[in-house]
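Record now logged for everyone:
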Amino acid sequence: HPPPPPLPTRTAPPPPPPPPCARELGSQGGLFRGRLGSSTAATTATTTMGFTAAATLALLLGAAGSEAKGTGVTKEYVREGASPQLPLDHPRLRPSEDAPVEQVHLTAVGPNEPVLVSFVTTAPQDSVVEFMRVDSDGAAAGGALEAIRAVGGGSSPWVTAVGTSQVYSALNFYTPTNADGSVKWNETHWGSYQDARDFYTSSHIHSVPITGLAPGAAYAYRIPPMSEQVFHFVAPKAVDPKSKITFGVVGDLGQTQDSLTTMDGLGEHADSLDGVLLIGDLSYSDGYGPRWDSFGRLAQPVFSGLLSATVGGNHEFDFGEAWVGLRARWPAPPKPTHLRGGATDAPLYYSYEVGPVHVLALNSYMDGTQGGELYDFVDADLKSVDRARTPWVIAFWHTPWCARA
């Protein structure tokens, strides 16, 4: 889908400067890996693209009775300037003519909760995923169905999971970029409901929950009619204060050359990760619908096998996005679960427990003052934490919370 011609009906002002306390460490690409334990932690940060300042990760440690300690090593990285945005016809972003199913990825939280399989089809079809438990060797083999051995050694039948699909429509916003990737803010084309060229209607977006999974077990899954393509994942670990867990952490990923390198870096570490925390600003669609589709294609090779938990950033909220694309394509886990926030099936804040960790996913673009919905949720959630059960508490959100004084 070529972008509409730049015929601005309104001029978008340049973005305001960050507050004095915000440090700009980079954008659209960054990888952080850490291993957490109940008593000791050796945390390794491998920044392939420059970790983003807009994404915030907090470890809330040192509760009474906890002996959790942390050490860290950071690999220095110096950005060389803006990374150009990949064109929509890039081989990693363009649609495949022979793939009726695309943009496959997983979102998940704790054990005994659904793992959501999301995918997109051009034509309407049943929202069905077939899955089965496999041994660890089979799950690691990847690819061919012949490499997957069902637990017990027999020809265990595939189990069918059924979900739902949706199609949404929105106004396209479009801001052209220069060759160096910088944005031409004065040429922003703001979508008009009176111009059919500005309408974006998504393909069929499917979300299928897989339930009844054994914690920490390996599974294979496939999506008809592409039954010859088999994906794999490992279910979330059981809650255990003595266990260890490894997260990948990424913010401001986008669709630049740096983003591509970061995505490939995640893929290289996939076997050592238990999940990925996506701290907002996923696609940098900025109101231009086709960029959500291209991001899904970019993400599929990694996130079709890695479990992700997501919070939204300003690029999922601004430019007319208003969370629509994020909630439809990368939904947070559905209710009812442990103190899940919000009244929808794709909440904007939530918490869960996995391994030795209590995870708190927050929304930077809600009123957090005392007495508000978000404040009350965080207050109740932190009071519910049992450090004997989860000695680590991790909170993540998009925008730094800081004081100017």
